[in-house]
Queue: 2 jobs
Job 1
Amino acid sequence: MDSLRFTAKASSDGVTERDFTVGEVTGVLWSPASGPGRAPLVLMGHGGGTHKKAPAMAGRAHRLVTGCGFHVAVIDAPGHGGRPRTAHDEREVAAMRRATAAGEPVGPIVVRYNAHLAERAVPEWRATLDALQELPEIGTEGPVGYFGLNMGTAIGVPLTAADPRITAAVFGVFWHESLAETAKRITIPVEFVLQWDDEHIPRPSGMALFDAFASEEKTLHANAGRHKEVPRFEADSAVRFFARHLGRAVPTPA
Amino acid sequence: MDSLRFTAKASSDGVTERDFTVGEVTGVLWSPASGPGRAPLVLMGHGGGTHKKAPAMAGRAHRLVTGCGFHVAVIDAPGHGGRPRTAHDEREVAAMRRATAAGEPVGPIVVRYNAHLAERAVPEWRATLDALQELPEIGTEGPVGYFGLNMGTAIGVPLTAADPRITAAVFGVFWHESLAETAKRITIPVEFVLQWDDEHIPRPSGMALFDAFASEEKTLHANAGRHKEVPRFEADSAVRFFARHLGRAVPTPA
């Protein structure tokens, strides 16, 4: 098993940021700069074409660390964040660019390519989680959450179905075709975000994915707006969701 | 114009509760026991068959008062909370009881009866709001919110469409038939709650009502569960929604 190696460290605003590698996988771990040692862990998956330290990742991580005292880990998906692209990656990226340039639907390519990436990413995530749980400040006893939209959902749904260590998840903004069958095996609490006016994902497709989860507790948050207009308050909602389910109190009205 | 008369006062846990009347209408106003004088006002509508001080009303009011420092007012709907029932009320209540006892759908009766009650309740609410705004601690300048599910939505949607003083609203758990046309005239921010497994309200009906609002900012919260199983965390979400839109800060993660 590959162990975790820290490669860089920085701190600001009460948050420590440590870059790490687990084998070929590059990641980042955000933690409280001070405070109690052991705390729950939230894994976050980034969107397609971005990377582990994209602004959305850093912003959500800061909310989770400073609001709840959690650890937050993100890894670069295969072919993302400077990780090498395969010939398959190059073909699919080119196909997405051609479709976009031609004004053709990019959805079918995203669905099939992200399903392929998930096959590579799920074992990487599980090895990374093994390695993270070796750290004394995380350990194997604490609860683990997963938070990822877009490609973060395409990878997170099969990851969550495969790994019983994940006990609460925030997903959303993805098509049902490649994921609904897998979602039927997921029973943990789920918060699911979709955009009511998504120009790429038909409304019934997003709804069908939400419907597929077997979770007794699941909540759909559908916001007016287009594909990339998920409101920032959904990140705050996710923080409260994880606070409820991973066991740290968040200051909220009584 | 009928003015507001206070008829009883009590305080507990930092919240002052004052019963009042405006003409024939009976109401309650919850306020911070101490603190800055003038504050935003949230009007709340209770569900069918309950009353102004039902546990859901008192619980939500306490959250809004202690969390945000708001004033919160609830009035008894016509025929509710000890207010006299008309012959029409008695006929409709009997019809609902018969349908329930016979295992027949109660929805069509609720829809038509609540539309009737809304015609009586909207002018009562507007007169009550006039009178509440005469109070120095409320005034005419501050923002006003509306929060009501079930019958509270059947009354609140036409009230909000009619009264431009209401600038943010939480609705939900109602059929579209009697309300969708009116909802199309509403443009303020809306949070809308529905139950994914509602045994009375067909899923497409609740969704059609959410879809009808013309609001640029609107959010659907759909929770797994039956008609009466709206999760308690939706009340906390409503508090944060009003804090965002009525201008008081709530302690939340950064």
Job 2
Amino acid sequence: MSHLILARSRNDMRQHLKIWRDQGKKIALVPTMGALHNGHIALIELGKQYADHVVTSIFVNPTQFGPNEDLARYPRQEDEDRAKLCTIGCDLLYAPNLEELYPQGFQTRIELGAITQRLEGVFRPHFFSGVATVVAKLLLQVTPDLAIFGEKDWQQVQVVSTMVKDLDLDVTILTAPTVRDPDGLALSSRNAYLNAEERRLAPKLKSALDKIAHQLKTNPAGLDFIVGQAKQDLLAAGFREIDYLEVCHSLTLEPWQLGDPARILVAAWLGQTRLIDNIGTS
Amino acid sequence: MSHLILARSRNDMRQHLKIWRDQGKKIALVPTMGALHNGHIALIELGKQYADHVVTSIFVNPTQFGPNEDLARYPRQEDEDRAKLCTIGCDLLYAPNLEELYPQGFQTRIELGAITQRLEGVFRPHFFSGVATVVAKLLLQVTPDLAIFGEKDWQQVQVVSTMVKDLDLDVTILTAPTVRDPDGLALSSRNAYLNAEERRLAPKLKSALDKIAHQLKTNPAGLDFIVGQAKQDLLAAGFREIDYLEVCHSLTLEPWQLGDPARILVAAWLGQTRLIDNIGTS
């Protein structure tokens, strides 16, 4: 249990970081929307391995939610989050108010091209612009040496990496594997929305991904059939709708072709809850 | 006459700057598209006043030109530019190739809101997104302490300042007043396009601005009439078309209202050449 500094303003945060920076310390940033679970903890652990100090940010970013999405009910539990950050040994929590990130008159946004127009981009058209803008702001406010993202949001990681490269942001992006419950369900703050029956069904997403990964390894020619079947199975099991279930080029997110590095990604609805997941194939 | 370092690549440029930075020297960046004239020289002079080393960049940025604009014929004269930079005592010329700024796969752009949707934004819809993106990239590649822009491109200065503030870019923006020929014509690389007759007419732009500034001071109630008359006078004198001639809030560029800080801005065509100019009212 260590001391956790809490900074609500950019200037306060920067003053603390300046001390570490003047000492030549390496700083890692873990950007989150709070409601921290073991997936986040794994990111912070990774930060501790590669940097001297870890900063976690908690900011439920309104610009990445669409008008009919779950901004209002997104879980907020800062007291529990702070206790977890203390336990894990995070050094500083940056939990800015809206005004610190989007002051009066704010009107800049960062847009990416092709990589944001597939998968999540189709179903959440404003999502990646919101993510890219807030991540750029956090990276420029904190100016960490490293920033750490979870592979659970695979497309987001690729979008952020592309933006960092395109804009010459001076930061190294590290990623950590998805953390799962024993039954395979990927940890997500949104799992809290699931009722008991939905929670029971949820791990079938991972099973569907596994089945496709197996097919890809053994007989890629039969892939389309297996993907179609996996969709039908999910719907039959009780998923309300499947936004996408696709095999993609792991970096560009374009439809997979023989020889490409592959990533299998899914987004599907259980009742009112939208879950996403993905796996690699190596 | 001093030594001018020429860097074509980001890495080469950064290596030179690191030496100065490690010595604690202050660095100013003057971003240009080349075809340097005394307006640019004034920016570099300002940089020399406020910083220890001045970096000038020359990059004719294709993304800020529309499909029917003058990208192909924009004047390129690097040898003359380099001689001028030597004479003035600029320390480093960063003249990157296209690939240094827009490598394969580049797909990020920066968009601003209201401030980019008036005046130039109406007539050159991709212009400010191109400017914001390339300026952000130059600022992030060079990471200067100061960056210097000319008031000749007044709306551009406001767009860049807004972006720098919105994205928390750690740089101070300085501006230098427009440099004019003795007859009032604002210096511009595009003045090279003018034939003798057009060159003779061109200073009337500045006269129109002056007339409106006078009206604003003496009788703002009669402003609309005077602006309308100034437009007619320009057309009668031989200007082919007036894109805009407007009194605006000097920072937001919204239509001017009594009590606002004012800026008077004009864009008009002489033959195939589009000229812009602006003045304040203090």
